[in-house]
Amino acid sequence: MNDKLSNPQKTIEIIKKYDFAFQKKYGQNFLIDAHVLDKIIAAADVGPEDFVLEIGPGIGTMTQYLAEHAREVAAVEIDTHLIPILEDTLQDYDNVTIINEDILKLDMNALAQEKNQGRPIKVVANLPYYITTPIIMGLFESGVPVENITVMVQKEVADRMQVGPGTKDYGALSLAVQYYAEPYLVANVPPNCFMPRPKVGSAVIRLTRHKEKPVQVKDENFMFRLIRASFNQRRKTLQNGLNNCAELAVTKAQVVEALEKMGLPATVRGEKLTLEQFAQLSDLLS
Ligand code: SAM
Asked: Rounded to the nearest whole angstrom, what is the distance from the C-alpha of residue 74 to the centroid of ligand 1?
C-alpha cells in the first residue's frame, strides 16, 4: 500500500489518529492528489541543490515530496496542533526543518541567509487563500532572494496575476506581480483534489523572478501608491481618482498635464494603462 499522505486513505488515517479538527480560519484544505503534487514539484524545478521554503505544510503531504527532491526544506506552519503530526509524518526525512510560526511574521531574509547563504531560494506552497496577496507581496517587497514561487492559489487570483490592461481582472495585483516576476499557469485544480473540498476553483501558478525589472522607475514606492490609488477607485478617471487620494498629494491639473505629455486622453482610467505607462506617469508625478 502507498504510505504517502497523497493517498487519501493515509490522510484520513492521520486525521483520525490525531483527532485533528480542520481550522477554517487558517484556510486548511489539504492536497490529496499525487498528480497535482508531481506537477507542482516539476514546475518549481526542485532539484538536489535546492533549498525550498514551504509555506503551510498542513500534515506534510507536499513536504514529503519536497524532501525527496530538494537538498533541504523549511516548512513554516502557524497551527500548533499540526506540529506533532508533522513530526510524525516527516520522521523519515532528515532534511526538513519544521518552524511553528506565522509566515507573515517570519524573518525570511534571515532564513534564506542561514539555510542558503543568501543565494536565491525556491518557494513552494499550497497557500492559505485568506493571505495569498500579503504572502506574495511580502516575498517580493522584502527583498528575500527568490528564484521562483510556485503556489496553489484561488483560480480567480491566478487569473488576476496574469492579465493585461483592459480586462476586468486587471488590477494592482497584476501590475505588482508582473513588475517582479514572469507568471506561468501550471495547472487548474478542481475542488476534489483537496480535503475538505474548497468552495472555489484553484490553480497552480509559477512566478519566476525577473533578473532585471521590465521597467525602470525613479520611485518604486510612489509608483505602487499610484497604482493602488488608480484601482481603489476603478470607475473614476485618473484625473479624479488620483486627485482624491490624500497619500499622493497630486492635483488634477498635474495629472492632466502628465497624461497629456504621455499622449493619453485626460479621461483615461487606470485599467487602460500598461506597467510601462504607470512607470512613466509615476516619474512625471513623483
Ligand atoms: N500544504 C498542505 C497541503 O497541501 O496539503 C496544506 C495547505 S493548506 C491550503 C494551508 C496551510 O497553511 C495550513 O496548514 C494552514 O494551517 C497554514 N497556514 C495558514 N496561515 C498561515 C500562516 N499565517 N503562516 C503559516 N502557515 C499558515
From this structure: 13
